[in-house]
Amino acid sequence: MARSVWKGPFVDGYLLGKAEASRASGRNEIIKIWSRRSTILPQFVGLTFGVYNGRKFLPVQVNENMVGHKFGEFSPTRTFTGHSADKKAKRG
Amino acid sequence: MSGGLIAMGVIGRPHGVRGLVRVTSFTADPADLATYPLQDERGRRFVLEWRGEGIAAIGEVVGGEVAGGATRWVRDRDAAARLTNLRLYAPREALPPAAEDEFYLADLVGMAAFDAEGKALGTVEAVHDYGAGASLEIGTLIVPFTRACVPEIDPAGRRVTVVPPAEVIGEST
Predict the structure, then answer these.
(1) Residue ranges in chain B modelled with pLDDT below 50
(2) Computed from CA positions of residues A35, A36, A37, A39, in that sequence, does the dihedral angle turn out positive or negative?
(3) Domain end residue (candidates: B75, B94, B113)
(4) Same domain as B110, residue B66
(5) A60: which chain B residues are within 8 Å (Cβ-Cβ)?
(6) Best interface-test mutation with A: which of B93, B140, B167, B171 has the largest number of A CBs within 10 A?
(7) Which residues of A touch B143 (CB under 8 A)?
(8) What is the pLDDT of residue A69?
(9) Is B168 a member of any domain?
(10) For residue B144, what is the enclosing H or E element?
């Protein structure tokens, strides 16, 4: 069953303060978080979070398309080692 | 990657009795596998023609240039079975040039990483991309693949300059 709309999106409260502080500092920094359950809010766009996957903190660069998803969706807990072949990475 | 060769796919089990094989492609678009000059570890050259999803006709190039007349196509199941588990490689030079600020994963992996002062940090062991931007794994360090964190990339010199971001610890729940 989907979450009731009247409750609003769930987000751990301390993330809002951390995001605000990071944005105000304007530094090149990564916010390490364990809260995989938190919803990505519009005020997180442009920030980089290190989302713990049980072993390491994977960098998650938040963009508009990720709003509404959970942080955990972008930090898989199982290792996938594919072949690189002709795959490319774009520098953000 | 071994000696400038990049693994592009692997031949699987035979399909039917006419020499077709199942092929697993490692390329970003599986169909692109047929466009590369393919060879195995021993230097034998192959051409591939897709006949269905994951199913292809395979032929060994026996002449000088890759051409229809010089290709010995696999026509029966026994010959196809002998190719099972054969890895297909392409030379690095065969990949088309990447766009600006795009880098082949095969190039990035193995590059030496240095910080802004020139101190060695290790080598790039893996490139992760799970839909939230690429990141480089350098030993225990994982840095976002951004201009701020990776300002310089020298493909010819096989080195990257890394500026690790400051870390802010979020409260544990």
Answers:
(1) 1-2, 173
(2) positive
(3) B94
(4) no
(5) 132-133
(6) B171
(7) 59
(8) 96
(9) no
(10) strand B141-144
